[in-house]
Amino acid sequence: MLRWLRRGLALDGLYRGDVLSVFRVNWLYVLIGVEFLLSDFIEGFRRAFSGLSSVLVVTHSNADPDAVASAVIALRVLEHLGSRGCVGVPEGPSKVSRALLERLSVGLELCSDNTFYEGCVVVDSSNPVQLGSFKDPCLSARVRALVDHHEVGLLHEMMSLKLVDTRATSTTELMVMVAEGVGLKLDGRVATLAMAGIVYDSRRFQEVGPYTFRVASTLLDWGCDYDLALKSLVVERSEAEELSRRVATLKALSRLRVEKTCHDLLVAVTHIGSHESDVARTLVNLGADVAVVLAEREGRARASVRVSGRALEKGVKASTIAGYIAVKHKGEGGGHEAVAMAHIQLEEDVEKVVDSIARSLPGKISRICQEIAATNN
Ligand SMILES: [Mn+2]
Questions:
Q1: Region 350-374: what's the mean pLDDT?
Q2: What average pLDDT score do residues 129-133 get?
């Protein structure tokens, strides 16, 4: 009965082993609902994070607007609870995030990565490798919390308090609910930043979850400037950047390996020095169903993974592919259903790694298709 219930609810998306839990998730919780789980997290967070003298709030490297907005809200929540916090952004915020913070005049109080912190809050990340030089200071903190909307990764086991819900379109949505839960109303500027975080991760509300519109409405009530949020996300590329992106795309195409699997799914694997996410997106737009683009970074590589709607319909998720590549190449991988990333070791020439991925991936994908087809029959 329990197994049946869990399975049924997993399909509904209501119960997930990863939903969150301070305590063990059991089916009673499921019946009471996610709101109860959220209030559990908030209760635990309030207890663990009140009155701390130093809390590190970490985002993933090259933090996007969702990560930055989540971090800023986390700082406000900590302040509200009488704690002092600062933000650690490995490799700094992304270009869009830097422009956004500047336009909204929101400053980030930055943390150092060689100090001891009493507490650590990780936002919008699922794997320790994403925390860069802030990994050790975070994992050695006495109290640790994770707020995230990616598929469960290695960080999950390392944190005592978790609010992980893959149904949230953005981590910002979860953080706004936490702010509400501790009785904090964000000021207009931070509410605008939060809206920008949601707009960015939902691709302007093209992908929404059960919390997206409710949270957006709360932000409007709190005085968010929606026009400003939209405008602040637009970053014009300089001519030089646009040229470098075009060169990267064409070079990546010239090195492309294409394989077919599951009857009509096309797997495209290549490598490039930079712009790997742009190139992966372009490959899917050009007709690839699973695009893997490697970019070499000092003996390691980042593999940007994207899948098409056709691949998703057959049960092939980008996060699964990233996880598979990570396991095969001693790394860590994670992300979302359609977009994911693996950080791997480069033990041989990048071209050989591209070759090995192009050879092994079609088999893995074919097994996924067969399993899904078998469960559907
Ligand atoms: Mn996010």
A1: 95
A2: 93
pLDDT tens digits along 235-261: 888 899 899 999 999 999 999 999 999
Give 62 Cα–ligand 1 centroid separation in angstroms: 12
Query: Alpha carbon of 77 to those of 22, 299, 304: distances in Å?
Result: 19, 39, 33
Tokens of 133: 């030089």
CA of 347 to the centre of ligand 1 (A): 30
Distance of CA 170 from the midpoint of ligand 1 (Å): 5
CA 260–ligand 1 middle distance (angstroms): 31
> Both 208 and 347 in a single domain?
no
Distance 67 CA to ligand 1 centre (A): 6
31 and 89 co-located in one domain: yes
Instruction: Please answer whether residues 290 and 362 qualify as being in contact, where contact means their C-beta atoms are separated by less than 8 angstroms.
Output: no
Q: Which domain holds residue 212?
A: 2-232
Ligand 1 centroid – CA 171 distance (Å): 5
Last residue of a domain, one of 232, 249, 279: 232
Beta bridge partners of 293: 270, 304
In angstroms, the CA 277 to CA 256 distance is 15
- Among 185, 217, 232, the domain boundary falls at 232
Report the number of distinct structural domains present in the chain: 2
Average pLDDT score over residue span 18-24: 41
Residue type, 36: F
Mean local confidence (pLDDT), 337-357: 94
Q: How far is the CA of 175 from the centre of ligand 1 (A)?
A: 11
Give me the amino acid identity at 93.
P
Across 80-95, average pLDDT: 95
User: What is residue 240's predicted lDDT score, i.e. its pLDDT?
Assistant: 92
Q: How far away, in angstroms, is 197 Cα from ligand 1 center?
A: 8
Q: Could you tell me the distance, in angstroms and rounded to a whole number, from the CA of residue 65 to the centre of ligand 1?
A: 8
